[in-house]
């Protein structure tokens, strides 16, 4: 089974949501661009832009309703937050579609690089990757993503806002949001799958290096007949290492700004979810609000898990790459050869200047520190939103609405 078979379902799901504008060739051994899918993506972008305009129109109507109901204690700020979440979700969906068109060739290059790494590891080190297990895990996570975004989120939003979903317009907005949120879920599934593909290969490389560096220098000199053979072995490891780092850089170029929008959306969604829980629990009776709170808690927990999983996968992959670099350095120290030391010194110097990590268009690094930053920022903005809500209620009580 090749890497293309391992990512078969991932690519299919991306094609379904127009996040992949390429297909397999007839031999199913490589990816090629598809003009028909390109035209379908362009048409879908036009539809989604229309959706965004519709949401903007509804926001304008919502402001008019607020202005004509100044005597009632309405959820003005809550309505604004929900519309903002809808609009930001659709904007992310539009950019994901555009990015899939613009970066389709780079996505194909990324797969080609992974395929070359697999061939090199199999040829030089007899390392064979279990693509079947990777495919099974990918399918399992895909089913979870589709179930979450198309079923659970729909039920959660319906329970939380069923009193407001009595009009056709509200139902249309709900359907639009579910479709665009599912696009975000497929984007997350694909990105995590690509990062995990790099992680698996780095782990295999580290295991192979670990088998070598565990031996003392005198035993290592017995394994290799000459200094040149030892240098050649070292060059094979460094070559694969650089190719894996190149795959990380390729992912950063493909998904850089998409990740900026993605985390911005997740941050605003998490803040909105926590604020909605506060609002419902504070302003409504427990008998009326317990189902809403339960739905919001479920929605929030799954959103936190998604953020955590992305940050965690990128974090452990980066650490594994750094561990590989340390193993290469240890390999050269154990060998105790001048030529090999010079080779690794040059390699180490490159690592210092070219730091390998997952970034969102160089705005921030994607690791567990980003997760902690998001949680702390949510706390700060939640306090600000509560203050705004209290200010709104005070003005509403005296007949003034801002």
Average pLDDT:
78
Q: Largest sheet at a glance?
A: 2 strands, antiparallel
Helix segment count?
12
Name the overall outline. elongated
Q: Report how far the terminal alpha carbons are from each other.
A: 62 Å
For the CA atoms, what is the radius of gyration? 26 Å
| Major beta sheet, strand line-up | 1-2
Helix-strand pattern: HHEEHHHHHHHHHH
Strand content: under 5%
How many DSSP E strands? 2
**Class computed from helices, strands and strand pairing:** mainly alpha
Overall number of domains: 1
Identify low-pLDDT runs: 63-75
Summarize the structure in words.
The protein has 402 residues and is mainly α. The chain has one domain. Helix content is 83%, strand content 1%. It is built from twelve helices and two strands; from the N terminus they run ααββαααααααααα. The protein has a two-stranded antiparallel sheet with strand order 1-2. The longest helix is centred in the middle third of the chain and has 57 residues. It is elongated. About 3% of the residues have low confidence. It is found in: Cell membrane. One of its GO terms (cellular component) is neuronal cell body. Gustatory receptor which mediates acceptance or avoidance behavior, depending on its substrates.
Give structural attributes.
single chain, 402 residues, two-stranded antiparallel ribbon, 2 strands
